Amino acid sequence: MVPVAKQREEHQHAVAFAAQEVLDAGERVAFDWLELLRVEWTERARSCAVGAALAAIGASLVVMAWLLACAALVVGLERRISLEASLGSVAAVHLALGASLLLVKRRRRIER
């Protein structure tokens, strides 16, 4: 028969070993979770960067198209009226549209 002190010592070693295994497993889980978090955030950042780049390129193309449309309108109007009058007309339309949008924004802000 094994003495009680020896059994107690073996039990304490087994408990200590099991506790160390639990701590090691918890550490591995924490490190794996942090790695997963890093990978997810890296992917999100990459996705946001691609989206921002596409939005910037798209916005640039829209602005260029708008400028070309305005230039074509000025050239078309120049056939009927002077260059100065056609430029002034296009500018006046833009001024009226811009002022209208600013007023709408201001009213929406006041309503909130």
List the helices and strands and how they pair.
Elements: H1 4-78, H2 83-111
Describe the 3D structure.
Helices cover 93% and strands 0% of the residues. It is mainly alpha-helical. The longest helix is centred in the middle third of the chain and has 75 residues, at 4-78. It is rod-shaped and about 115 Å long. The mean pLDDT is 90.
The percent range for strand residues is: under 5%
Distance between the termini: 84 Å
Structure classification: mainly alpha
Q: Total strand count, please?
A: 0
Order of helices and strands: HH
Report the helical percentage: over 70%
Low-confidence stretches: none
Note the main sheet.
none
Report Rg. Answer: 36 Å
Approximate shape: rod-shaped
The overall pLDDT average reads 90
Give the helix tally: 2
Essential attributes:
single chain; 112 residues; mainly alpha; rod-shaped
Give a brief rundown of this model.
With 112 residues, the protein is mainly alpha-helical.
